[in-house]
Amino acid sequence: MSRVFALLSIVILIPLAAAAQQRATREDGVIVLLHPDGRWTLAPDDDDPPLGDVRVFFGNLHSHTDYSDGSGIPADAYAHARDVAKLDFLAVTEHNHAQAGAIATNHALYNGAQPASLISTAARFNADGEFVALYGQEFSTISSGNHANVLEVRDVIATSAVPNGAWDVLLNTWLPAHPDSEGKPALILLNHPATNDSPNAKEYGIAKFANASAWRSRLDPHAELINIVNGPSHEGTVPGKPSENEFLRYLNIGLHVAPTADQDNHLRNWGSAAQTRTGLWAPSLTKANVLAALRERRVYASEDANLRIIGTVNGKLMGTRFTGADVPVSGSALDIRVSFADPNEPNARYVVDVYGDRVGGLVADVVAQHTHEGNGTLTISDVSYGGGDQYFFVKVTQTDQDSELRDRAWLAPVWIERAAGGPMALAAAAEPLVSLALDVNPAREEAIVTNIGDATVNLRGWTIVSTVDNQRFTFRNNLTIAPRESAIVTSGSNARSGLRVLRWDDTNDFIWLNDGDPGLLLDPDGAVRAESP
Question: Could you tell me if 41 and 33 are in contact, meaning their C-beta atoms sit under 8 angstroms apart?
Answer without folding.
Answer: yes
